[in-house]
Amino acid sequence: MQMTDRDEERIAEGRFGRTVVLLMSLGFFAILACGIAAAIAMLRSQDRYSWVAHTYEVERAVTGTRLAVEEMRSARRGIMLRMGPGMQDNYEAAVAALGNHVAEIRTLTRDNPEQQRNVVEMARRVARFDAMIRRSVGPDADLGPEAEEERQRAAAGVVGVSEKMLAEERRLLAEREGQLQFAIRLFFVVFTAAVIVLVVVAAGSILIIRRYTRELVKSRAALRLLNEDLEGAVRERTIDLQRANDEIQRFAYIVSHDLRSPLVNVLGFTGELEAANKVLGAQVERIESEAPELLSADAKLAAQEDLPEAIGFIRSSTQKMDRLINAILRLSREGRRSITPEPIDMTAMATGVADSLRHRSDELGAEIHVVAPLPELVSDRLAVEQILSNLTENAVKYLKPGRPGRIEIRGRREGLRVLIEVADNGRGIDPRDHDRVFDLFRRSGVQDQPGEGIGLAHVRALAYRIGGTIGVRSALGEGAVFTVNLPVKFNGEQGTLT
Amino acid sequence: MNSQQAVTIVMIEDDEGHARLIEKNIRRAGIYNPIKHFLDGTSALGFLYDAPDGPTHSGPALILLDLNLPDMSGTDILARIKGEGPLKRAPVVVLTTTDDKIEIQRCYDLGCNVYITKPVNYESFADAIRQLGLFLSVIQVPDVVED
User: Fold this and answer.
1) A20 and A139: one domain?
2) ipTM computed for the complex
3) Which of A247, A404, A489, B118 could pair with A378 as two cysteines, CB 3.0-4.6 Å apart?
């Protein structure tokens, strides 16, 4: 179920991503189209303004030619009426101006073959008109009305050409105006379309994002609920575990406690039996010495051998049982003891442990060497000391006969853990028994030392209690290395449970 | 009143075997005071406080108390005896299977005179009883009996 949920989520996320990219590129293209249309319209309108200016310039030049023609005619009249010597100069200036205007028009309309033709036509007509006037003021002037009319026509011809040119310019302007209008219309169409696309894109995006956000918020709320639930579940489980642990501790305590009660009777009455048997034994001895014929061999055997033997076995077995029960009791009590972490100087502690065993190790010819400095740690002093002294004591206890014992207590730090090692060159432990030795009442190898198989079980329980582990590396006959792995800083039981 | 009145030993012990062993050892130690045995706390308290031949109304007593009783906790009985009342000076020997330090401490705090762990080393038990026996022989009749 969860798998398909996750798949659905992933598909929805992918769809969302794709849609957003699509919408964004759509919007981008709309803006791009808008920009291109605007650029075209702008270029067109700029173009148009320069052409309008151009047209005006041409118009001005053309108008200039008409003015020059008028000036030429009035200057001729002045010459004819002998109004002054300046008139000839005036005429020459007007001719020059006319020539300038024509040249100007020629330059301005270089791109237009139609106008160029008109300019050539105009230049030709101007030249003719100029020649006519010059002839009319000369000595052999024909001042008749026909010649006058011809001059009028030549002037009109010049003006006519200029009119034609002006019309041509106005036509071109109108044509360009139309192009500009089209560009502006195009721009507006593109712009409107882009705006519509943008609005649609924006609305779509907002819709999708809102829906997606709503889903996100929903899933986040669900996640938070799950999280809180998880914390609650962990807390509940922790309480359950603690309760179960307490229950086991209490169980071990009550069982061991109540088992001792019948044992007291067995031990006590065995004592009574022993005492009674002593009396009986004395009686049997007396009968044996005073009236041996009264004593049967069976009775003698029962009083002197069977009874003491039976009592001896009962006593040794019940004593052993008492020790075992005491061990369980001690373990359960250890489990109930409150742990108080504090900084521990491990070097001093190891030296102390070695000193406390000095007497025994000297007796056995063994040497305990503490490799200083040992890493410091924060933990329960009593537990660590118990672990260290149990391991060292074991090392002293299980030396290999005929080999001088050498025991080393060393340690190192690895990240947030401290490894304390107790290494010996003793008899070693068969690898098959490496797990077994840590079990309660289990031992390994030759059973030539007193003990109930409690020490290492106790050490392991203690190590677990303070957040640590214990392991052993060993081969038979080659010594053993017990490694205790402890946290550098033990935060108490809350720290390990949550 | 006769100040040489015999001290009664009141034994509160639910295990018959234990009771028998204790009695035997007391006798073996040469103490022949009368022993009253109770199997539970209720009847023992009834005898201690209400019985006409009980220690409240006649004669001094030494109390041997087991802490694990079927009907109530031995420490409650100890607290009641050693609290305010006619029996607060009566010597109490606590006998139990527990050798828990905290519990021992608690019993001494409540006023127990001797604490003995079972299974007892009978020699030392007899010694303790003998000493208590000597102690008992010099006990004065409690003041409360005067009124």
Assistant:
1) yes
2) 0.72
3) A489
